[in-house]
Here is the input.
Amino acid sequence: MYGAAWCGDCRRSKRLLDGRGVDYEYVDLEVHVEAADIAKSISGRTNIPVVVFPDGTHFTEPTDEELGAKLDAVAA
Here is the structure.
């Protein structure tokens, strides 16, 4: 997941992932500024968070419902 502490959607998605006990890598774009280009190349947008899944798909600014449904599908 690419995100930043100032981003409310990032904090929300991070909270959902943490609450479900999901093992994930968090790339803090405030610390790793150069990674913003990677996030943009994945999503085609400058919006965050960008959540990348093991199957290569991604969500940009997902709702809790979208992210939860994807996590359920990946776990099945």
About this structure: The beta strands are 2-3, 27-28, 50-52, 58-60. The chain has a mean pLDDT of 96.
